Amino acid sequence: MEETGVTRLQRVLDRGEFAVTSELGPPKHAGTEEFAETARVLAPVVDAANVTDNQTAQSRMSPLAAGRIALDNGVEPVIQMTVRDRNRLALTSDLLGASALGLHNTLAMSGDPIHIGNHPTAAPVNDIDTLALLRLQNALRAGHFANDENEPIRGTAPTLFIGATANPMAPDPDIEVSKLRAKMEAGADFFQTQLCYQPALVADFLERLRAADLPAWPRLLIGVGPFKHLRMAIHMRDNVWGVDVPEVLISRMESASDEGEEGIRICVEVIQELRELEGVAGCHVMAVAWERSVPEILVRAGLRTSEA
After folding, report:
1. Are the CB atoms for 304 and 19 separated by under 8 Å?
2. Is 3.20.20.220 the CATH classification of the domain at 8-225+278-300?
């Protein structure tokens, strides 16, 4: 079969294989080696890795610079782009630059609230919302700017594989299905979700999607991640928006003799359950500050045969 798609992630999804993405947080300094080493850890086992955009509203290295470093160290990046910090002019500039640098996967996001970060009095931009950012990207790859004149790009249009967020665990799944439909119509090619610790809720959401008569089946990469210790599990339960950690998992972490091992075991179990759900396109493994656990998780989940 002839290969399609400009990126590895797109090709894997087009083939209907279970895709694996992970996450790379750029440093809060100008050094590259630690970030590059983390990229080299992930490179053999993931199809792509998100390069975050000032996550938790902390000032960090540009995701374009970090994305190119990731690519040079074997990892195909997904460039996160938030509307919090840049207007449509700057976002357009970054998208053209990203494609020129060989960074073709993107993920449109709102961004964490500025008040929780290290510049709490900075002015948020929010010139456009994430739906408009999806439309902007779709316009650019179609060969014109997203302005009132639909000004043509007189040269090479960017090549973009456009991602968006979804929330299968939303309290009102019908509203979430409506949002997902709008994002698909705006140009989204794939979706990544917040962390999921209850695959049964994903299964329920998939049933809603089947009844929604969407124009195409959305390619959903469900967020998963290990608890490094009990404190992390409790923090996720109590403080992280959109994450529901069942009490049974808290109890398992409380009684574990090795909290990290139990956290990995839980993550592996969740991945294995998600693989059994028809309609799940892959998983997005978020192991913040514990990226070295990702190869072991994927091997134990049966997604990879070797950590090397």
Report:
1. no
2. yes
